Amino acid sequence: MDYTSLFSKTVKRSKASAIRELLKVIAQPEIISFAGGLPSPDLFPAQEIAEMMYDIIKNNPKTSLQYGATEGQAALKKEIIPLLKQTENITVTPEQILIVSASQQALDLTARAFVNEADAIITASPTYLGALQAFQAAGADIIGAESDGNGILPQDVENKLKALQAQGRPCKFIYLVPDFQNPTGTTIPEDRRIQLLALAQKYHTFILEDSPYRQIRFEGTAPRTFYALDEGRGNVLTMFTFSKILAPGFRLGFIIGPAEVIRKFVILKQAMDLCSSSVLQLAAAKYLQAGKLPAHIQDLIVCYREKRDLMLKTLEEVMPEGTSWTRPDGGLFLWLTLPKHMDATALLPKAVEHKVAYVAGVDFYPQCNVKNDIRLNFSYSTPAQIVDGLKRLAEVIKENK
């Protein structure tokens, strides 16, 4: 049977994740990988979670092992509401929260809810690859706005919005990862956030705020979220996830926004997976209720700060002239820029030969038009692997300049 002619437009325009495909190739234990966006498994609160899971299933099997409401378990929402108030000064009702199978599902839901084929959206350039995949699958016309060391440039966003307006085309939404962005590690300052929010209001669009790493801040003061700055006007949808601050295997996150939007998302999610895992939601709720999350996040901060500092120190020591890199205040990534004539994708097989791997930056650009960037993850590797891996990478770059 030849299925080629039967595939939908969605399948035909969908692209495989460059990261997921790469992880298959570099699974050998001798390769030092800076490629994945993986939290350190050494920090998973495995024993605590195991005990909580046992208790939940033993004492509450009829709820924990059953289907649940598509909107999410009430017990988890009950813990999320004060968490948002305490940490972000955000006030929401249960009707403004949808529990999702991590923020990747929230991206897919947003694309399904708002994007028709060829509809325009604006993202930073570069931006999160998983978001580009979700938007491409929906058929969006993804317009990348220029960025600098402080994230997306408001002036270029307005230029893009004006151009769309002149064409009689609305911008469906502006997608941003404002804190320790994947892939660059940059953070949008608060004054720039205020400018961007004003642009969204002026041009009758909204901001889709992706906040997976915000709590993992090593230094400095956090700017307010777009959601908090919006003060309940309904111009922002914000996604959070437990993948980077608790356990990615839970596949749990949540999106907040106006109740009428969340209701549409619920209907779409019903067709996707009926509901997210009941037992995992109840485990997350129990973990939050026990007050264990703040101490766990502090452990992440201490560990990842040390790894970031070591990566920055080693880059200074081993990288050749002509390379540069970002210095993130938190998160999991930094962005290495090679001389303009170099192609990070072409360089990757040579790096793998030297038993080191990374993600080439080209796929993070909506137009795939910049080839000399590399994303480096510092959360997963051990300190010894960070030093050894960067030495190997520096040798590859020197040999191929």
Please give the structural blueprint:
Elements: H1 9-13, H2 18-25, E1 32-33, H3 46-59, H4 61-64, H5 74-88, E2 97-100, H6 102-114, E3 120-125, H7 129-137, E4 141-148, E5 151-152, H8 154-166, E6 171-176, H9 190-202, E7 206-210, H10 226-230, E8 236-241, E9 253-256, H11 259-272, H12 278-289, H13 293-318, E10 324-325, E11 333-337, H14 344-353, E12 356-357, E13 359-360, E14 373-377, H15 383-399
Parallel strand pairs: 1-12, 3-4, 3-6, 6-7, 7-8
Antiparallel strand pairs: 2-9, 4-5, 8-9, 10-11, 11-14, 13-14
Helix pairs in contact: 3-12, 5-12, 6-7, 6-11, 8-9, 13-15
Description:
With 401 residues, this protein is an alpha/beta fold. The protein folds into 2 domains: 146 residues, Aspartate Aminotransferase, domain 1; 230 residues, Aspartate Aminotransferase, domain 2 (3-Layer(aba) Sandwich), CATH 3.40.640.10. The chain is 44% helix and 15% strand. The strands form 3 sheets. It has an 8-stranded mixed sheet, with helices on both faces. A 4-stranded antiparallel sheet has the order 10-11-14-13. The N and C termini lie far apart (48 Å).
